[in-house]
UniProtKB/TrEMBL annotation:
Classification via Gene3D superfamilies: Uncharacterised protein family Ycf54 (3.30.70.1860)
Highest taxon above the source species: Bacteria
Source lineage: Bacteria, Bacillati, Cyanobacteriota, Cyanophyceae, Chroococcidiopsidales
Family: Belongs to the ycf54 family.
Protein's name according to its UniProt entry: DUF2488 domain-containing protein
Length: 108
């Protein structure tokens, strides 16, 4: 299992109200220049929210939800400070209740 960290908010907030697209494009460009493997993903309607242990988090987030998921906790902390009105947390996957979050993913 791998630990994933996330920033969660409404899909509208993350994809329309915040200039998040340019932040993710710049980070992607930086990673490619440094030949570093991408460790963050934008996920619309994340499946991890369907796990029983995530129901409390799901109820706190306006739907439809979106998340930035990363294996880099520092990046998620930075995003939290930049975006403010988001929920952060972590989960381990794949597990009995949470599928691999990257299995059916469209990359950033």
């Amino acid at each position: 299992m791998k630990t994933y960290h996330y920033v969660l908010a409404s899909q509208r907030f993350l994809t329309e109200e915040e200039p998040l697209e340019e932040v993710l494009k710049e980070r992607t460009r930086d990673y490619l220049e440094k030949q570093k493997e991408i460790d963050f993903w934008l996920v619309k309607q994340p499946a991890f929210l369907e796990a029983p242990e995530m129901q409390e988090i799901k109820t706190k987030c306006p739907q439809p939800a979106a998340a930035i998921i990363s294996t880099n906790s520092q990046f998620i902390t930075w995003l939290k400070l930049r975006l403010e009105f988001v929920i952060t947390g972590q989960f381990q996957a794949p597990s009995d209740t949470i599928p691999d979050p990257l299995a059916s993913l469209t990359t950033v």
